[in-house]
Amino acid sequence: MASSAILHLSPSPIFTPSFRTYRPSLSLHSYFPKSLTVKASTSLDYEKTSVADVSMKPNNWQWKFKDTFINIYYEEHEKESTVPTKNILMIPTISDVSTVEEWRSVAKDIVQRVGKVNWRATIVDWPGLGYSDRPKLDYNADVMEKFLVDFMNEPNSPVSCLDNDLVVFGGGHAATLTVRAAKKGLVQPTGIAAVAPTWAGPLPIVFGRDSKMESRYGLLRGTLRAPAVGWMMYNVLVSNENAIQSQYKSHVYANPENVTADIIESRYALTKRDGARYVPAAFLTGLLDPVKSREEFVELFGGFEGRIPVLVVSTLGAPKRSKAEMEALREAKGVSKFVEIPGALLPQEEYPILVAEELCRFLHENFEPKA
Fold first, then answer.
1. 3-class SS of residue 103
2. Which residues have C-beta within 8 Å of that of residue 5, sequence separation ≥ 6?
């Protein structure tokens, strides 16, 4: 499916009566060169410090949305250095089990490298996901965009006073939401890397968006948000270890052997946090989709031509529909570089070394002083 969904749809007694149309889920130019396609690159000539030299500082930032204060979890990965420091914001893929953990290995790899720039990485959990608070809000793409804009711009935000040098790495929907906000001028990153970018939630990409289906999505969304029956349905569809394992092995990871018991246990624990079902209810039914079509998706990236460098990291083992959306960006205006690496929907977690290599190359080519 053309999404970063962790929920995998298959025919079941729960969905068959309501979704009878089921189809199987396959779950710059003056400044930058023309869009380039390459395969996974060889290692960059960097030295690395000991991982012990990299510190990880967990913290919380309080986001005010309307009259609600929400604790937002974030981590800072950095090392001491005498060379100039630049900053990266890493944003997890939106899914039922979205978490900062998917970016940790990539962050450590990039931060520990010794070069002409000392890179510092901040990873943040979305409101309603990961280790952030999960209040019962009416989550949609605009709410998530508002959070992203505030986190990057608010004076008290951990990344707002960083001398306008922020490069953003996002996975899945996070990448597309970042691109959307930047195209509007609401945020001003100096570069964007979109890792396995997606734009469509699981149900709309499979069943469409006509009025009848939208009505059914609304019914399902309301049911998932309800006090008692909502938890029951959430437990059946998402919050059980067998379902999470099946989804990871079928389309989240490219190699089922990379799915470990520790990963499943960690992700399962996330689904048991208070309020865990509210964002998935919105994501599953398409409310978090930044655009409504592939044409809009490609057009978003076109707004960056000649402005900032944009890297798209596609994956060789992505589900058919997700792969088609990524492939649409191969020659898209505004995409200064397009690469392919092994992986499916979470390459930054499954193949962190390969992702870190490509991201470091992107940083080296565009943001480090030339010899």
1. helix
2. 27, 95, 96, 201, 202, 247, 283, 284, 345
Burial class (CB within 10 angstroms; exposed 0-12, middle 13-18, buried 19+) of 262 = exposed
Other Cβ atoms closer than 10 A to 67: 5
DSSP state of 252: I
DSSP 307: T
What does the pLDDT average to over 163-191?
Answer: 94
The answer to whether 96 and 278 are in contact (CB under 8 A) is no
DSSP state of 359: H
- pLDDT at position 213: 86
Domain assignments of the chain as residue spans, ordered by start: 55-205+288-367
Q: Which pLDDT band, with edges at 50, 70 and 90, does 202 fall under?
A: confident
Q: To the nearest 10°, the Cα dihedral for 359, 280, 295, 219?
A: 180
Query: In this structure, are residues 223 and 237 in contact, taking their beta carbons and an 8 Å threshold?
Result: no
Q: Is the pLDDT of residue 221 over 60?
A: yes
**Region label for 46, one of left (φ > 0), alpha (ψ between -120 and 50) or beta (otherwise):** beta
Q: 115, 92, 114: which is closest to 103 by C-alpha?
A: 92
What are the tokens at 64?
């005010």
Burial 13-24 (b: 16+ CB within 10 A, else e): eebeeebeeeee
Q: What are the phi and psi torsion angles at 181 (to 5°)?
A: -65, -40
Q: What pTM, to 2 d.p., does this model score?
A: 0.87
DSSP, collapsed to helix, strand or coil, labels residue 296 as helix
List of E strands, the chain: 37-39, 47-48, 55-65, 68-78, 85-91, 113-114, 118-124, 166-171, 191-195, 310-315, 337-341
What's the residue count for the chain?
A: 371
Q: Cα–Cα distances in Å, from 144 out to 54, 219, 295? A: 30, 22, 22
Domain 55-205+288-367 is found in CATH 3.40.50.1820: yes
How far is it, in rounded angstroms, from Cα 338 to Cα 196? 11
